[in-house]
Design brief:
alpha/beta, Carbamate kinase, five-stranded mixed β-sheet, about 20% strand, eight-stranded mixed β-sheet
């Protein structure tokens, strides 16, 4: 039973497992912790559990909370070292807060600290995928945070919206609810009185991306509407619904589900919904080692389900080895697919534009059937 409306998020039949992402600005205001608001949200989570839904919390706020306690400027984001120090203090306080408030409703919190590598590396991703359901089956409420105390600029998610989408895939969730400081996605800047709220979006297209900005309205977080749309793309590929809703109000889950205020992103069709587990993981990768540019003929062949052959490659970027994840782009720079390379960047450059009959002579060994095989490729 696919999720078709915002009210479905409160329906056990449609949404057995829900991921709720909470932004920094909701947890920590400029004058301190918003404890009363958090207590209300935890009550809503407890109500969802009581009606038979599993709930996973993805919480921002460690850096903001730690910065308050340490007295660091710029919300703890003045430097990477400041962010790590703030997170080390804030993670303890944040986990303790969630554990305390969930316990008030007879629920047990289970801490989950993640870095990008935990969900980008296939083996570690499968470990997370195996352990998350067990915590839920045991009756715990997982509370996931990005492990900013050890993460670096190169490996950080940069925004927990994308962490929530990747975590939802690992947990087998039906939907992700992104609570932040905006009502929804608007067709233009929401500061414009004529801006139209988009209640439902089918497929994150270039036109949808053009409506977004990269700024957080509060200045507290590291993301913005752009990162939320990237999260929607990750969720869409895995057949997971994603909702953007305003969390600044009391009882924000009920406001979204009962009043229908928010944007629901649904899948655009069977190909998007039914990507296999490995392909959904591949399509949602955030860090790629390189890229291949292809000509129009190759782009059409890929859209038809074919592998990528060397004859259609017109450009090679980055330094990657065989088996690394790469992007495949058309000549306008639009990313068409992600895939696992069958050759290194150097060999791809050697083979690009060449017919398969030439490959053995160029390589000095028996060639493989494709540059990227269709079984190791997912269209975006």
């Amino acid at each position: 039973m696919p999720i078709a409306r915002l009210s479905d998020l409160a329906d056990k039949a449609a949404c057995r497992r829900l991921v709720v992402k909470v932004g920094s600005s909701l947890l920590v205001a400029r004058d301190g912790l918003r404890r009363g608001w958090i207590e209300g949200l935890v009550a809503e989570i407890a109500a969802a559990r009581a009606r038979g839904q599993d709930v996973i919390v993805v919480s921002s706020g460690a850096i903001a909370l730690g910065a308050k306690r340490l007295g660091l400027a710029k919300g703890g984001r003045g430097s990477l070292a400041d962010a790590q120090a703030a997170a080390a203090v804030g993670q303890i306080a944040l986990s303790g807060l969630w554990a305390e408030l969930l316990a008030d409703h007879g629920l047990t919190a289970a801490q989950l600290l993640l870095t990008l590598e935990d969900l980008e590396d296939r083996r570690r991703y499968l470990t997370a995928r195996a352990t998350l359901p067990r915590r839920l089956d045991a009756g715990a409420v997982p509370v996931a945070t990005e492990n900013d105390s050890v993460a670096t600029q190169e490996i950080r998610f940069g925004d927990t919206a994308r962490l929530a989408a990747r975590g939802a895939r690992a947990a087998g969730a039906a939907a992700v609810l992104l609570l932040s400081d905006v009502d929804a996605l608007y067709a233009r800047n929401p500061a414009d009185p004529a801006a139209k709220l988009l209640g439902q979006v089918t497929g994150v297209t270039a036109e949808i991306h053009a409506m977004a900005t990269g700024e957080s309205a509060s200045g507290m977080g590291s993301g913005g509407m752009t990162s939320k749309l990237q999260a929607a793309e990750i969720a869409e590929l895995a057949g997971i619904a994603l909702v953007i809703a305003n969390g600044t109000h009391d009882a924000p889950i009920a406001r979204a589900t009962e009043q229908g205020i928010g944007t629901l992103f649904v899948s655009r069709g069977p190909r998007r919904r039914k990507a296999g587990a490995r392909k959904a993981w591949l399509g949602g990768r955030l860090r790629l080692k390189g890229a291949l540019t292809v000509d129009p003929g190759a782009a059409r062949a890929l859209a038809g389900g074919s592998s990528l052959l060397a004859a259609g490659v017109t450009g090679v970027e980055g330094q990657f080895a065989r088996g690394d994840a790469i992007a495949i782009r058309d000549e306008d720079g639009v990313t068409l697919a992600h895939g696992l390379a069958e050759y290194s960047a150097a060999d791809c450059a050697l083979l690009q534009g060449r017919h398969s009959r030439e490959h053995a002579g160029l390589l000095g060994y028996a060639p493989r059937s494709a540059i990227v095989h269709r079984d190791q490729l997912v269209l975006l």
